[in-house]
Design brief:
The chain is mainly α. It is built from 11 helices and no strands.
């Protein structure tokens, strides 16, 4: 059953149009270089319309993998290739879901001590990105890309290399995310210790926002290594599928296009908040350059 006729899931013609148009998303991100306005996370603002951080993040991110799963479920039978879709296609779909199991569920609901509220503008933008991106990737994997084993037969080496790069990027992303979470956890432990020493009882109070820069690993050189690790992850993903995996290339380019200005803006925020001395010689995402 189609959720939206010829669009969800897309017909081949609409999928080709969507994938072609999606490569121009970086043009939209030009506006991010012109303003530091990004009402989410550490730059969240007070607004009566704000969405609670954890709820907002999950509901913004989870439609993406659900869209991919839906497309993979609907399209192959319709294209009469349900029984012959190569295992490589399913593996790539599974790896995508592994990433989003962490990003959209485990991180916000289990691992993150807290999350700042987000403005509906961010929520709508993120949700739109997820749905468009996953219709494009899902369509390629579900039958609009290679559907024969002959395509994958000569790519086993590249497929394995890409998988290693993907795994390294994912683990690096999780590791550096956790270094950031530890800043918050440390602040909570310090407050609990103070309350214990002062003999305070009752329900534990919340912890005011604490912003410090981790000093370990790649944080010694750049301020947003978790961004870079995610780019490495999706570079590996694109390598696995090859040059014909245009939706994966679009995804990688679009992530870099939208996350780089956020990182540069984030560096300015750190300088204003903590001081240039605290930031030191760290750059945003590329050591010594950006």
């Amino acid at each position: 059953m189609d959720i939206l006729q010829n669009w969800f899931p897309p017909s081949r013609e609409n999928w080709e149009l969507l994938t072609w148009a999606w490569q121009f998303f970086p043009l939209v991100t030009v506006i991010q270089w012109l303003t530091d306005f990004y009402p989410q996370g550490k730059t969240s603002i007070e607004s009566r319309f704000n969405v609670p951080g954890k709820i907002g993040w999950v509901t913004m991110e989870i439609p993406g993998p659900l869209t991919l799963m839906y497309t993979m479920w609907i399209l192959p039978p319709r294209l009469e290739i349900a029984q012959s879709l190569p295992w490589s296609n399913w593996i790539l779909a599974g790896m995508f879901l592994v990433h989003y199991s962490y990003r959209a569920v485990l991180a916000p609901l289990v691992l993150n001590p807290s999350m700042s509220p987000m403005h509906p503008l961010v929520w709508v933008s993120g949700l739109s990105f997820q749905i468009i991106n996953c219709l494009s990737i899902g369509g390629w994997l579900a039958g609009y890309g290679p559907t024969g084993e002959e395509y994958w037969a000569g790519r086993s080496g590249w497929f394995q290399l890409g998988a290693v790069i993907w795994a390294a990027g994912l683990l690096g992303n999780i590791y550096h995310d956790d270094l950031l979470r530890e800043v918050r956890r440390a602040a909570m432990r310090e407050q609990r210790q103070r309350e214990k020493e002062q003999g305070e009882t009752g329900k534990p109070r919340g912890v005011d926002k604490v912003y410090k820069m981790p000093q370990d690993s790649l944080f010694r050189f750049i301020l947003f290594p978790h961004y870079v690790c995610e780019w490495i992850e999706w570079t590996g993903y694109w390598i696995m599928g090859g040059r014909r995996f245009v939706p994966a290339r679009n995804f990688l380019v679009n992530e870099v296009a939208t996350m780089t200005p956020r990182a540069v803006s984030g560096k300015r925020w750190y300088v204003n908040r903590l001081g240039r001395k605290a930031v030191g010689r760290r750059t945003a995402v590329v050591p010594g350059l950006i």
